Automatic annotation (TrEMBL):
It comes from the Bacteria. One of its GO terms (cellular component) is cytosol. Monomer. Its EC number is 6.1.1.17. The keyword DNA-binding does not apply. Keywords: Aminoacyl-tRNA synthetase, ATP-binding, Cytoplasm, Ligase, Nucleotide-binding, Protein biosynthesis. It comes from Parahaliea mediterranea. ATP binds at residue 254. Residues 334-472 form the Aminoacyl-tRNA synthetase class I anticodon-binding domain. GO terms for molecular function: ATP binding; glutamate-tRNA ligase activity; tRNA binding; zinc ion binding. It is an enzyme of class 6 (ligase). CDD domains: GluRS_core. This is Glutamate--tRNA ligase.
Amino acid sequence: MTVRTRVAPSPTGDPHVGTAYIALFNQCFARAHGGQFLLRIEDTDQARSTPESEQAILDSLRWLGLDWDEGPDVGGDHGPYRQSERMELYGQYARQLVAAGKAFICYRSAEELDALREARRAAGNGTALKPSDLKLPEEEVARREAAGEPYVIRMMVPEDDGRCEIDDMLRGSIELDWGMVDAQILLKSDGMPTYHLANVVDDHLMGITHVIRGEEWINSAPKHKLLYEYFGWDMPQLCHLPLLRNPDKSKLSKRKNPTSILYYQRMGFLPEALLNYLGRMGWSMPDEREKFSLADMLEHFDIQRVSLGGPIFDVEKLRWLNGLWIREDLDTAQLAQRLVDWAYNADNLQRVLPHAQKRMEVLSDFAPLAAFLVSGTLPITEDSFSAVKGEREDILRHLQFALWRLEALRHWNRDTIWDTLKGLADAEGVKVKDFLAPLFVAIAGSSASFSVVDSMELLGPDMSRARLRHAIEVLGGVSKKAMKRLEKTYQQLG
């Protein structure tokens, strides 16, 4: 048997360090067993998926030094490698299950589903809906079908409270309660598959032998096991890696820690150091040394050396490790080249100069004008916002609303950023100049800079959003109670 592993990111935002973490372990496992590693793009969420995000995933993983044997950019014998290009397959397999009695067509509306869950809750039961909860009388199904009402295809699941046994490479036998498993949607009303159907179909057709993924998927394993049984296919071996966590042990999230690979690239971390740090997340070299290369990890890789304790992603520890790489692995000529490649290259200068030139009288003006573009976290304080109109609560509201809008922005360029922020200012009934004032400070560290919209385009989405989050924290942050009020007000803006 040839070992085949895969990573399957969704192109719906900035490339996540968690994706690189999973990709690294899949590549190492495949290479350690003389196998192949695949990259598949799970882009069935067409509302949020973008070509820019897909390209950012490919570029950032390659920047880290990872590579794959098959994928959307390199081809292979098991393509296509984008789920959006495999749509006919999923419908065929979903209807195959319906014909075999392993799935059913469900016409239940969202309101009906809410009522069913509430009824189960009131009866003291779990809220996982079973086929018996969802199925309608045949005459009602016929009526809704004749009326052309939307439907989904759901999988059949056990009605009893028995246990499902899952074999995990790291955890051994895991028992999960069937009572917690709902009649999962396999095909949505728009014909798009859910992760669960597409994942199982693709892994089988692409010959995946080992599924190495995050432990958040453990609870989905019974559904996947059922689907493999329904189709009559052999199930790949499962291995659930521990989740990356913040220093406070919570799940790694952008609210508490930068999670975008592009952020770390923009900050000036070395790819070797970041990959080294991800390799240390729950795994160790036989000699326990902390600094090692990808080649070292590949040479000594053993999946059984993964520790199940939640690995802490500590940016300060990463900075320390990155410092070792800078001092121990680069001579001054190499460091100079890294600096040029990172920020001081002709392409970057050509992007910045049109904005800086308008404010320059002597060449020495350039460095102060552009310093914030090659900086990380800016040394701003609450006093930095003293010249901004409005109370502290108003400034925080503007920053938080801007952050939420910019987090949802699918295409990052000057025009879309401007339209987004102007629209938000208009919705709040605030002059756009006043609305943008705190953003100038958050993004550039000063209101005496060139256009904040141009600055955000130059900085990119990852760093821009990180600076807005930092500014919010500098101003004291938003309490849970205040956050609920802000969320309500924000939703009313539309």
